[in-house]
Design brief:
Keywords: Transferase. Pfam families: APH. GO terms for molecular function: transferase activity. It comes from Streptomyces avermitilis. This is Aminoglycoside phosphotransferase. It is globular and about 50 Å long. Helices cover about 40% and strands about 20% of the residues. With about 250 residues, it is α+β, with helices and mostly antiparallel strands. The longest helix has 21 residues. A hairpin with a 2-residue loop joins strand 8 and strand 9. The chain has one domain: Aminoglycoside 3'-phosphotransferase, Chain: A, domain 2 (Alpha-Beta Complex). About 40% of the residues are buried. The chain has a five-stranded antiparallel sheet with strand order 1-2-3-5-4. A three-stranded antiparallel sheet has the order 6-8-9, with helices on one face.
């Protein structure tokens, strides 16, 4: 009998690994619907869906390893990061999926959410006011018109698998949909600024780096409180709070 590994678990969802099978348990079946649909449409390698019986989705493990994790060292070469950039560009150039994703929130809604979150961060004493104010200023550059692309919506480096210098698959598509391509690139390079040039080289087109920096600040501001309340540590070295401090 294979050992059961808890990959991630909180009040909204949990992922377990048993051998070469991942079991995703989600309280919101709409997220699973989005995930299955996005994997069927994405022009990049994705996990094989083995079976689905709500609230559980079973998918096969991917070959290879991730490029690293937020707060940890990168295990991938520059060529591997560039290959990831090429895969991300292929996704962004694909025909649009039918619905908006996490990266597709309107500028007005996003600005309102950001302002409310910044106020809570200061009021609750989670972050100092000067740190929040500076990063809110940086984040402003992300609040601009953008052309919709097929986005992953939660493209953390832990969600991209490589073998050598080849991308073998991308996991966790529950936030996928139409959205801002630079949100994906910023999420992927969050906390690993040293590999941004590699990713951009593989992506193969001009990127507004100010917008990438803005998304680093914006994303970090929005998730610090949620992470703290769900048992994660955004204050760990190299994680979201350090990303915010790097903008000072």
């Amino acid at each position: 009998m294979d050992e059961v590994e808890v990959v991630v678990a909180h009040s909204e969802r949990a992922t377990l690994r048993v051998g070469d099978v991942f079991l995703k348990v989600d309280a919101d079946q709409a997220r699973i619907d989005v995930e299955v649909e996005a994997m069927s449409l994405a022009p990049v390698p994705t996990p094989e869906v083995l079976w689905r019986k709500p609230p559980v989705l079973a998918i096969a493990a991917l070959p290879g390893t991730t490029l690293g994790r937020l707060g940890g060292p990168s295990t991938g070469s520059s060529a591997a990061w560039a290959a990831a950039g090429t895969a991300i560009r292929k996704l962004h150039d694909a025909p649009l999926p039918p619905r908006a994703g996490r990266a597709g929130r309107s500028i007005v809604a996003l600005a309102a959410e950001l302002d409310a979150e910044c106020e809570l961060l200061v009021t609750n004493g989670l972050l100092p006011a000067d740190l929040v104010t500076r990063n809110r200023q940086v984040a402003e550059a992300a609040l601009r018109p953008w052309t919709a692309a097929f986005t992953h919506g939660d493209l953390q480096i832990a969600h991209v698998f490589v073998e050598g210098n080849e991308v073998t698959g991308i996991i966790d598509w529950s936030e996928a949909g139409q959205g801002d391509a630079l949100y994906d690139l910023a999420t992927f390079t969050l906390g690993h600024e040293e590999h941004l040039d590699d990713v951009v080289a593989g992506y193969g087109t001009d990127i507004d780096l100010d917008v990438i920096h803005a998304w680093w600040s914006l994303r970090s501001l929005l998730v610090v409180r949620w992470l703290t309340e769900h048992g994660f540590d955004p204050f760990a070295p190299g994680c979201e709070v350090d990303v915010l401090r790097s903008r000072m």
